[in-house]
Design goal:
The protein is mainly α. Helix content is about 90%, strand content about 0%. The chain has two domains: about 35 residues; about 220 residues, no CATH class.
Length: about 260
């Protein structure tokens, strides 16, 4: 009975948090179209999130291209299908590996940062001070950050995919003496709109999830300074799990059109 009671408590707590986060997302959409529009803060958040993540995302994408090609090349040679390596690598990276790995990297980099920043503002009563002064802290702090992640994650994914393909080309050029033109001709011949559009659209949902969970955990941070670390860590864990769920749903929906 105690195990059953404990399980029910966890389930009810989980459902309660899902409801609260859904209400938080609903408030975001309501505030999104209301004046004033914090365009300057939005641009600042876009610059910070994109600029400060460029190096990490670029290095990650480059390593993905190198490692994936190095791991798959011997087996493709055994099968006598070395000419298919550019096509196989490009489809795998653009459809799945690039978007989900880049989103996970950004969840750790951006999501934790949002949770820690808003959490520290909450425990130091800066958010309360904004409410007293007549400023809408939700509009200024939350809406701008969620919108910035929604807009910037797709751009970072596109950049990561391009760098990953370049890393794959370097491996093929070094080990197989494949020219730049031949490699990328094969890449673009193998990719179709049905590969690009779904993989790009789902990155907007990835960005929204990263911003939503990070802002939710930081905005409702509790228990003083210790809660800031909890908010940052929880934001990363929950965002990572949510990204896998969204990716699974996107793959299931996309599979209908293949």
């Amino acid at each position: 009975m105690s195990f059953f009671r404990t399980s029910m408590q966890y389930i009810l707590k989980y459902l309660e948090e899902v409801g609260e986060m859904s209400a938080f997302a609903g408030r975001f959409f309501r505030e999104l179209f209301r004046r004033p529009f914090e365009s300057r803060e939005l641009l600042r958040q876009c610059y910070n999130m994109g600029n400060k993540s460029l190096l990490l995302v670029g290095v990650t994408g480059f390593i993905i291209g190198l490692v994936f090609t190095l791991q798959s090349r011997p087996k493709m040679l055994d099968l006598g299908a070395s000419a298919w390596i550019p096509s196989m690598v490009s489809i795998s990276i653009v459809r799945e590996i690039g978007p989900i790995i880049t989103a996970l990297i950004c969840a750790g980099r951006i999501g934790s940062g949002i949770g820690a920043e808003l959490g520290s503002m909450r425990v130091t009563e800066q958010i309360d001070a904004m409410e007293v002064s007549g400023t809408n802290p939700f509009k200024y702090l939350v809406v701008t950050r969620i919108l910035a992640t929604t807009l910037m994650i797709p751009l970072l994914v596109v950049m990561s995919d391009a760098i990953a393909l370049f890393g794959s080309f370097l491996v093929e050029n070094t080990k197989g003496d494949v020219s730049f033109r031949y490699f990328f001709d094969e890449v673009f011949l193998s990719l179709d709109f049905v590969d690009l559009i779904p993989s790009t659209l789902k990155t907007f949902f990835f960005g929204f999830a990263i911003g939503l969970v990070g802002c939710y955990r930081g905005y409702y941070c509790k228990h003083g300074t210790a809660g800031v670390g909890v908010a940052a860590n929880t934001a990363v864990v929950e965002t990572s799990m949510l990204l896998f769920v969204l990716d699974f749903i996107a793959v299931m929906v996309t599979d209908i059109f293949y």
